[in-house]
Design goal:
66% helix, transmembrane helix, transport
Length: 438
């Protein structure tokens, strides 16, 4: 029986990789409970994107652009899932060296009902099809996150072409470097990213910021109020993101074990802390906590706990969530003004900054002395250095790829819709329909 060592997020990969020879000697076990949990987790990540992220973003734009954002999220997710099967999976997890995989599993060549992917427990495996499906949803939502930064003014075909280029040259190398053990470069350095702080959130946040600069500001930005048209949609979307994120984080454990339970609890606690922290900061600074702020706090907490959820303790999760909730308020206000970019839906202010906060604090709260699951000789200073390296590499890599990709798209199809089309709204001019009857 062909067996594949397709390793996934989490620090336990080191143990797994080291015991690969022993696992080959005995027939691996496939537990039906693990399979059921992972299929459920895959569905939960899909729920995060469609309808969760779509509704969250859709409520934040003006009514004349809501369908365009929903369509972009749906189309980008669908496109990347197909690309994942075509060549994404093999380049991320199909063997290879330090920076990228091979073409050995192009179009899932050699992947069958009998092939298996390793988990974090020696001798326990998953059907490889399950792992392929689960990871496809990670790739899909990462691409979809980016569209919020340049919403309301970009050409639909430009979104699709950029998504192909960015997925190929930014997402796949970062995923391989961080998650493919033992050969991935950042994995070998000891970077901890249990469920995607670097691979998903920092990666997408930086790409969104680059897009906001290169696509340009919306007409009227800074001169007139560009208010969300339906905060109720945004609240529903944030709630669906919270529900789906349990599949994202706890599913990254790959098994229905205590490790999944820890990631589940940490996801619950960090998000609650972030929602309250964001609301508290708003109450102090603005005098009133807003529903939009509470929903944004939920997302900030989810983002920040993602890299840490499997290695920190519950108190560490609360600290990470509370810190991210408080600091990301500045991310969408003060930092946004400093950057002078029209990041329409605050992709960098929440996902980029929240991901950086979470990745760095993972290096702190994984320490056993702070309730984490690190080894007895865990060094906070050393791990902080490794985490900072992984953050820096992700920021630079994603930024460079994004600039080149947007410039290519600009030369091939153009980036921005005509001024008249932007004023009328992308729902009508790009898709020929309207969300609301006048």
């Amino acid at each position: 029986m062909l067996r594949t060592l397709a390793l996934a997020p989490g620090p336990a990969m080191a143990l797994l990789a080291g015991s690969a020879g022993a696992q080959e000697a005995a027939a691996p076990i496939v537990d039906k409970g693990d399979v059921a949990w992972m299929l459920t987790s895959t569905l939960l990540v899909l729920l995060m994107t469609v309808p969760g992220l779509a509704l969250f973003y859709g409520g934040l734009v003006r009514s004349k652009n809501v369908l365009s954002v929903l369509m972009q999220v749906l189309a980008v997710f669908s496109l990347i899932v197909l690309l994942w099967v075509a060549y994404g999976y093999t380049l991320a997890f199909g063997g290879g060296g330090a920076f990228i995989g091979t073409f050995d599993k192009l179009f899932l060549s050699g992947v069958t009902k009998e092939t298996l992917s390793a988990t974090f427990t020696a001798g326990v495996s998953l059907p490889e099809y399950v792992f392929v499906a689960f990871q496809s949803t990670f790739a899909g939502i990462t691409g979809a996150l980016i569209v919020g930064a340049f919403a309301e003014r970009i050409k639909f075909r430009a979104v699709l072409l950029f998504s192909v280029l960015w997925f190929t040259f930014a997402y796949l190398p970062i995923a391989h470097m961080v998650w493919y053990g033992p050969d991935g470069w950042l994995f070998a350095k000891g970077a901890i990213d249990f469920a995607g702080g670097t691979v998903v959130h920092i990666n997408a946040g930086v790409a969104g910021l680059v897009g906001a600069y290169l696509v340009g500001r919306r007409i009227g930005y800074g001169r007139e109020a560009l208010k969300p048209h339906n905060v109720t949609f945004t609240m529903i979307g944030a709630s669906l993101l919270w529900v789906g994120w349990f599949g994202f984080n706890a599913g990254s454990n790959l098994e229905a074990t205590a490790g999944a339970a820890l990631a589940f609890l940490n996801t619950l606690l960090a998000t609650a802390a972030a929602a309250l922290a964001w609301s508290l900061v708003e109450a102090v600074v603005k005098g009133k906590p807003s529903m939009l702020g509470g929903a944004s706090g939920v997302v900030a907490g989810l983002v920040a706990i993602t890299p840490a959820c499997g290695t920190v303790g519950p108190l560490g999760a609360i600290a990470i969530g509370g810190t991210a909730g408080a600091l990301c308020v500045w991310g969408v206000t003060g930092l946004k003004r400093l950057l002078r970019a029209d990041d329409a839906l605050d992709v960098f202010g929440v996902h980029g900054l929240g991901g950086i906060i979470g990745a760095l604090l993972t290096g702190v709260f994984t320490a056993p002395s702070l309730g984490g699951t690190g080894a007895a000789d865990f060094s906070i200073a050393h791990q902080l250095g490794v985490q900072a390296l992984s953050v820096g590499v992700t920021v630079v890599w994603s930024a460079v790829v994004s600039v080149i990709a947007f410039l290519v798209v600009r030369a091939v199809v153009g980036l921005r819709v005509a001024e008249d089309s932007e004023r009328e709204g992308l729902d009508i001019t790009s898709h020929g329909e309207s969300a609301y009857e006048s």
